[in-house]
Amino acid sequence: MSEDLSEETIAGDAAADAAAFVTAPLAPSPASAEPTSESTRQQVELIERMLQQASLRSNGGSGGGPSPASASSSRALSKSTSSGEKKRHAFWDTQPMLATPLALSATPEGSHPPTFSGPILEPAPGSYRPTPYAMPAGFVWSDVDITEPIQRMEVYTLLNKNYVEDDDCLFRFDYSANFLYWALTPPGFKTSYHIGVRCPPKSGDGPGRLMAFISAIPATVAISDNPTKAVEINYLCIHKKLRSKRLAPVLIKEITRRVNIDGVYQALYTAGVELPTPIGSCQYWHRSLDPKKLLEVDFLRLSPRMTLARTMRLYKLPESPTSLPNLRPMTPDDVPDAHALLNKYLEQFKLHPVFSREEFAHWLLPRPGVISSFVSTDPSTGKVTDICSYYHLPSTILGNAKHNKLNAAYSFYNVATTVGFQELMGDCLVMAKRESQDVFNALDVMENKQFLKNLKFGVGDGHLKFYIYNW
């Protein structure tokens, strides 16, 4: 890249499994907990071995070309030959990523990062494998129609039972079926990019049980003022019983093949670990909305000399918005003004999505239990002047006798023009509390650092790194 894309220059809040840059954020965890569980670490090690095998096979096989990698696949652990040496990544070092050996060899001398900005490997139409990759015996490819309720519930069940947990196995993400519909059906989505793996049905009837999944959705992204057609990769998930079958590299190669054939050669994804080579990094922050419940489920822990009563007073919020008293839910009539306002605001960032009006409406119009968006308007003109929003991503609480769900709001897109950013987000917290959210999460991206400490957010353990494939 010609410029460093630090966290302040990345527009895409809270690792949205949706609009910004679709990601799989780490599950909520107590402040002292590590972000991944033992089972997740075992999965990481398994995926690393899978990716190494995939790299070896792809080097000698057909269907070359850039291969977008998923958020989950990017959790491959690095290896170093000895202490102090640069870590090596058997898979990623062969990929067209910033500053990898492949990238350095593919660009002319003197045009390497940081002076080079653009695709590392040029498109090669006609060179991509025309047929799907072979599956291990006993498994078949299956496009998943996320608009069909039964198939959508299959994806929900797979993720609910086999996706990310926190280190202490206290929480597991609970992506609702409605959330998945929202996240995977933006304008221009393709069912062929929602790839499932099934085992044949025992009775010979029906499609067979869904055992693995990976997805891509289309996006237009501005990278240092270069509008780029790309995809966002997410939801690589393999049933726990099948993680020895080496399905992950096959899933990655198959989504790559389909995307490349359609003329898309860049992908965006995130990871909680550093791989070659992130273009930015940010950290999770958490703001307690129901501290009593958070204490009861071990999400929050009392500080020394703090009591429950003092903690409740510390995090108490007003009953109604104070800075924007006319703050109200966004409606379809607000879309033209709000769309223009957000797109103009995002132009200041070196990496940001470029939304069409239809995409904006899809991602920002309120959906109960999925996305909440609010606007303030000029009393004299009726034009939208301020926007705040968050999406709902609850977690199942494991092994707690009193509570079974943690309601979490994730900061999404916010624009303040008539009040300060801190005042806007203070009112946004009030709206989230009204909707019975237990905690409000945000990343220190965009302008979020302006309000995090003053609004009593606590820094979390989770970090998120942003990657652009083949750029």
Report on the structure:
The N and C termini lie close together (7 Å). The longest helix has 23 residues, at 38-60. The strands form two sheets. Strands 1, 3, 4, 5, 6, 7, 8, 9, 10, 11, 14, 15 and 16 form a 13-stranded mixed β-sheet that branches. A three-stranded antiparallel β-sheet has the order 2-12-13, with helices on one face. The model is unreliable at 1-6 and 13-84 (pLDDT under 50). With 471 residues, it is an alpha+beta fold. The chain has ten helices and 16 strands. Helices cover 24% and strands 21% of the residues. It is globular, with a radius of gyration of 22 Å. Helix 1 (38-60) packs across helix 5. It has helices at residues 38-60, 101-106, 149-162, 177-184, 248-261, 291-296, 308-314, 335-346, 357-364, 421-434, and strands at 140-143, 171-173, 194-198, 210-223, 226-238, 267-271, 280-288, 328-329, 351-353, 371-377, 384-392, 395-397, 405-406, 408-411, 439-443, 458-469.
Any key phrases for this structure?
alpha+beta; 471 residues; globular
